[in-house]
């Protein structure tokens, strides 16, 4: 239902000849899918495993297995041994905590095709005919996808290197054999998203490095896994996610997978007349050329990602950064302009982080990662400093190293080393603007305030955007006071999805019950640009911006001015009536979403906020009514907790709010 509505919305403004062309293309494609389905049922996709007998990759990986002793000493020196072994033993017991599931025992055999949070199962069928989304139930296809990314293999491998215990190698083999048996190529839910196929391939290859010399793994197993990896590469080339109006993180991971597999298989090639796109060197050439191009498509001039989400900025940076390191290991280099843009992506992470090292969750967030090389079960979803630890070595920058000093294990695995002795002190970050991405940060010694004011994702399509224009986050003395509530879930609950991306769930103004940007409740990844937000002034302690989201609906422009001084944050909201419309100022609500743990005490003339040792006073002028309600906030996908929201009702054209500490 949701996908049909998306297609209707996309087609309604197209010329008739273009609509007919698209319809004919879809009819032909469906016929082709039907033929392929029956072909695969009759002749399952497979390769002659004997062709893989004796195959060994000659490509260089991110970490060198010849340096095993050095990596083991590094893990022990960083005091990571105990947590690694605890995580690895849980993996052997098939205990996982994914996408908000909580610690869950999956039983003797891992259910690769099941949302183990709801017990919904996707039966094996031709991948193009599998319904992955049903908005009438709570099943979340991201759960089997996430589990089948096999990002836990890296932790199993580290435990094996630390202990030489063959149980970890046996678990690696058993899980992979079980996955391959229950997920025939193109015939399960785990082939329905090329992004997940690519991430899985990257993690399988990383896992292989740890267990190559295991005495408990037979040569026939290596033939099986290498055959499957080869088929992963063929599948990716035939199912690239670049057919929409815009490419994004999905297509980027496709390229990462092709590059990784192209390097891994090198000159090795299987000639099979039934298979297309079966040359690993062609995968590599395509991946390299497209990754260079995508850097300038997906990353703005200022280094921000054009999906308008801080969490997706993390994923995209990881994909570019780790693949760039891998390519350099294999004497493949990108252009200087590419490297400068990548460095800007890392600068964005450095300068937008809060004083406590965490990053505001702006826009969508789904816990997406490429490789989880440290803290598998405990990594913090809005802490991106592991990337700065890696970037510090890649770009030889101490400011990155200092910011990422708690994540030196990531630098060890990705770059092979880390600089532990740093002479320079941590630099104090200043106010900063990212106009291309729509992020503005006001700072002083005690206060951090991030303001969202910019284009929706994909140049106005809004796939991963929320109605958060002129919303802000506020942190004082390292304590969160007002926050973005996050995303919580996607398709598993479309009502909650819409709630968390709505205007009333952000620290901004809602006018006359309208959304800043309208959306269809069943079309979950479309938010057509209506706001056209614009920053009018920005300096070290002053921001002025406006958006047009209420012009056609309510006849007003919302302008917000924020001024930061030593002990106050002044917010002035103005609803400017359009002279041509001659309308009165409608009723509006100003929302302030509080961080969990902030206590609210309402007095007659002000509101007092208490958080640990800190007391903050919030007072306003021209507000007709003030209410305090419970609300949900989410720090990671699938997890929510109670907090509080302050709602101020007004009808005057100007609302002045003062926050003192």
UniProtKB/TrEMBL annotation:
Domain Heparinase II/III-like C-terminal: 430-661
InterPro entries: Chondroitin_lyas (IPR008929), Hepar_II_III_C (IPR012480), Hepar_II_III_N (IPR031680)
Keywords: Lyase, Periplasm, Signal
Annotated Heparin-sulfate lyase N-terminal domain residues: 115-380
Subcellular location: Periplasm
Alphabetized GO MF terms: lyase activity
Entry annotated with the keyword Nucleus: no
GO cellular component: periplasmic space
Residues of the signal peptide: none
The name this protein goes by in its record: Uncharacterized protein
Taxonomic lineage: Bacteria, Bacillati, Bacillota, Bacilli, Bacillales
């Amino acid at each position: 239902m949701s996908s049909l509505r998306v297609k209707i919305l996309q087609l309604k403004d197209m010329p008739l000849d273009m609509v007919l062309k698209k319809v004919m293309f879809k009819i032909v494609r469906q016929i082709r899918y039907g033929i392929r389905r029956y072909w695969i049922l009759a002749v399952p996709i497979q390769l002659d495993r004997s062709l893989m007998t004796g195959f060994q990759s000659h490509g260089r990986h991110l970490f060198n297995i010849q340096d095993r002793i050095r990596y083991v000493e590094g893990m022990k020196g960083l005091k990571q041994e105990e947590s690694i072994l605890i995580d690895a033993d849980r993996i052997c017991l098939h205990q996982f905590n994914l996408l908000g599931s909580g610690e869950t025992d999956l039983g003797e055999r891992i259910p690769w095709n099941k949302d183990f949070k709801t017990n919904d199962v996707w039966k094996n069928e031709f991948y193009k005919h599998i319904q992955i989304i049903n908005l009438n139930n709570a099943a979340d296809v991201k759960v089997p996808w996430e589990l089948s990314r096999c990002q836990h293999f890296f932790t199993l491998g580290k435990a094996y290197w630390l202990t030489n215990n063959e149980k970890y190698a046996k678990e690696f083999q058993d899980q992979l054999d079980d996955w391959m048996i229950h997920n025939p190529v193109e015939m399960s839910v785990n082939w329905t998203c090329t992004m997940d196929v690519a991430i899985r391939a990257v993690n399988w290859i990383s896992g292989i490095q740890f267990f190559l010399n295991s005495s408990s793994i037979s040569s026939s197993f290596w033939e099986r896994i290498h055959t499957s990896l080869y088929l992963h590469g063929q599948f990716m080339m035939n199912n690239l996610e670049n057919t929409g109006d815009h490419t994004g993180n999905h297509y980027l991971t496709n390229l990462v997978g092709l590059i990784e597999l192209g390097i891994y298989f090198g000159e090795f090639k299987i000639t099979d007349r039934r298979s297309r796109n079966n040359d690993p060197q062609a995968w590599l050439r395509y991946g390299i050329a497209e990754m260079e191009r995508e850097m300038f498509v997906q990353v703005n001039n200022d280094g921000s990602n054009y999906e308008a989400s801080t969490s997706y900025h993390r994923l995209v940076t990881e994909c570019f950064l780790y693949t760039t390191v891998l390519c350099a290991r294999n004497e493949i280099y990108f252009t200087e302009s590419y490297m400068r843009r990548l460095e800007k992506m890392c600068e964005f992470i450095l300068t937008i982080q809060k004083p406590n090292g965490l990053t505001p969750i702006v826009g969508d967030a789904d816990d997406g990662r490429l490789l989880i090389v440290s803290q598998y079960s405990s990594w913090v979803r809005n802490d991106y400093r592991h990337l700065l630890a890696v970037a510090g070595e890649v770009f030889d920058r101490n400011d990155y190293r200092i910011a990422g000093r708690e994540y030196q294990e990531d630098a060890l695995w990705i770059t092979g080393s880390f600089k532990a002795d740093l002479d320079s002190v941590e630099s104090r970050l200043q106010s900063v603007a990212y106009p291309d991405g729509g992020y503005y940060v006001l700072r002083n010694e005690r206060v951090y305030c991030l303001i969202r004011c910019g284009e929706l994702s994909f140049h106005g399509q809004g796939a991963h955007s929320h109605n958060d224009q002129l919303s802000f986050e506020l942190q004082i003395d390292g304590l969160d006071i007002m926050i973005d509530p996050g995303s919580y879930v996607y398709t598993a609950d479309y009502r909650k999805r819409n709630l968390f991306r709505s205007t009333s769930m952000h620290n901004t103004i809602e006018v006359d019950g309208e959304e800043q940007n309208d959306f269809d409740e069943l079309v979950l990844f479309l938010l057509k640009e209506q706001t056209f937000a614009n920053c009018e002034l920005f300096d070290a302690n002053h921001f002025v911006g406006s958006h047009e989201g209420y012009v056609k609906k309510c006849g007003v422009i919302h302008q917000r001015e924020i001024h930061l001084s030593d002990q106050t944050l002044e917010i002035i909201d103005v609803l400017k009536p359009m002279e041509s419309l001659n309308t009165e100022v409608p009723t509006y609500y100003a929302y302030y979403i509080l961080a969990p743990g902030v206590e609210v005490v309402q007095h007659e003339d002000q509101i007092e906020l208490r958080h640990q040792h800190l007391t903050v006073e919030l007072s306003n002028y021209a507000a007709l009514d003030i209410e305090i309600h419970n609300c949900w906030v989410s720090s990671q996908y699938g997890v929510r907790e109670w907090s509080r929201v302050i709602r101020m009702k007004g009808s005057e054209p100007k609302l002045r709010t003062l926050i003192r500490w």
